[in-house]
Amino acid sequence: MLEQGVEVSMASTPDKHVGDLVLNQGAPFYPLNLSRELTPFKDLLALFRTIRLIRKIKPQVVHTHSPKAGIIGMLAAYICRVPLRMHTVAGLPLMEVTGPKRKLLDFVESLTYKCAHWVLPNSQELKKFILDNDLSPDKSKVQVIGNGSSNGIDLEYFSVTPKLLAESNEFRKAHNIGHSDILLSFMGRLANYKGVNELVAAFSELQKRHENLKLVLIGAPEDLNPLEEHTKTEIANNKSIIAVGHQHDVRKFLAASDIFVFPSYREGFPQALLQASAMGIPCIATNINGCNEMIDDGNTGILIQPKSIHAIVNACEKLINNPQDSRKMGKLAQQFVLRNFEQQQLWRAIHAFYSSNLAARK
């Protein structure tokens, strides 16, 4: 956007990565403390501060991501009469909620969409969910840009180079993963809704049948939706499970992997699955929003039932026992990503969307 002459500002809850973010993006950062939980007093304070920030920098476009940033950002932008208000939807926590809390979350989501000029789900299935559940008062404002995804993928960055292969081999060597060993990988928050409890249980079952299995977990533990205690114990005590925590650069871990497993309960358009596919790794994922738009079951990967240990075990067995078919799936998935989700292409589409909509509102 900066290269296209757009003046960009960033705002979010600050963390230790802000310094690198500002350096890499070349854009000013404004701290806005947003809780991921429902905290009325803190949320009201965040709304006031967001209004103050918008009045200070006077943007023509406010583009929000995530449910909490969406309601705070879109409401503030609406109050300030920002010319173009856009909200990207990348997964909905309310999908896993029932009862009074679901009604509250539905109301908050609908209010976000009412304040926005455009609601941009990052997958076709997510758009269908929004429309089927009447979350948007105006269905015509709900649109998917390009083929989906929030940010596309940098195919040059996520390519397997000799240097990356050397780093991945070093990782395998450092963790006693032999040439004949099979490394399963997962990337994302170590959270209940990501299916990590089922994955760890399935891995323990698979170990009884295959002595040469390892599992690498790439991601930080989730405080709001924590893993079950027995899962945490198994991760800590099982020497074949390698938890590497949050990683700024995940490529060597993916390159070292033989099979990527993504058993999430809910998604928008999962970037982790996109990245693994871009690197030619055969993927197993749940048959949910986003995942089922990226994987053609039995062709470019395997889709499984959510929340099922048995389904994970069976899918892994198929790929472990058929390495040639497994590699073919990975290659076909890689080709699909190359054709449909190149990052620069999506960025150009977003910029064109900004420009055309601003011009239409003048």
From TrEMBL:
PANTHER family: SULFOQUINOVOSYL TRANSFERASE SQD2
UniProt-listed Gene3D superfamilies: Glycogen Phosphorylase B
Protein name according to UniProt: Glycosyltransferase family 4 protein
Stretches assigned to the Glycosyl transferase family domain: 169-335
Pfam families, per database record: Glyco_trans_4_4 (PF13579), Glycos_transf_1 (PF00534)
Stored InterPro entries: Glyco_trans_1 (IPR001296), Glyco_trans_4-like_N (IPR028098), Glycosyltransferase_grp1 (IPR050194)
Segments forming domain Glycosyltransferase subfamily 4-like N-terminal: 3-148
